[in-house]
Design brief:
Distance between the termini: 26 Å
Largest sheet: none
Oligomer: single chain
Number of helices: 7
Shape: rod-shaped
Order of helices and strands: HHHHHHH
């Protein structure tokens, strides 16, 4: 990620805070001189050019610090993304099979269906906090993909464990999950119900 964005290498050296503050103050210090404009017939013209040089130097200095900051944000998002995946995996629940059957086989409209709980409630505050930082830094698709993958994996394991996952390979064709068309169709149908109903309860992110 860092190389793609032209960011500095991991061996970055951040500026001394006092030096950074000095450069941040430069635009305010030279603003009046720059805005008033030069007098080309006066020796004070060199003062104007000096102000331009100071401003250029400050901008270059600050831009370098911003590149360092962007590298640190990118590194932080890599860590948060990995932790988000890990916490999702650790806190994923096996929903109650009766709830799964009800949600999957229900003929009710999606907004009348309550999805079963898929994530331990205790993990939700931290997951939400992680997700907010990821979204703010352009990683929303990673959150959505990670959650969908973990939810799908939990559903598939439940359907397979219930005995109706692979009805085309010997599963019980009378099982409610098999009646819905096997694990793939069961997962897709349940996804559709939950997504249409907004992913309510603690199963939603």
């Amino acid at each position: 990620m860092a190389a793609e964005q032209g960011l500095p290498s991991p061996g970055i050296r951040l500026a001394d805070p006092a030096a950074l503050l000095t450069h941040i103050e430069v635009p305010n210090q030279v603003k009046d001189v720059i805005m008033d404009g030069p007098d080309r017939n006066s020796d004070a013209y060199y003062t104007y050019l000096d102000a331009v040089d100071r401003l250029n130097g400050a901008v270059r200095f600050i831009e370098e610090e911003l590149r360092n900051g962007r590298y640190l944000i990118a590194k932080a998002m890599e860590n948060v993304k990995a932790d988000f995946h890990g916490l999702l995996a650790d806190s994923s629940l096996f929903p109650d099979l009766d709830e799964l059957r009800e949600a999957m086989l229900s003929e009710e409209s999606p907004d009348q269906i309550t999805p079963p709980e898929m994530i331990a409630e205790a993990a939700l505050p931290k997951l939400h906090a992680m997700a907010r930082r990821l979204v703010e830094n352009g990683c929303a698709s990673d959150c959505t993909r990670a959650y969908k993958e973990k939810r799908e994996a939990a559903l598939r394991r439940n359907f397979q464990r219930a005995g109706g996952a692979d009805d085309d390979q010997g599963g019980d064709p009378q099982h409610p999950m098999a009646a819905a068309g096997g694990a793939d169709e069961a997962v897709e149908r349940t996804h559709a119900h939950w997504d249409d109903s907004g992913g309510r309860r603690t199963g939603g992110m």
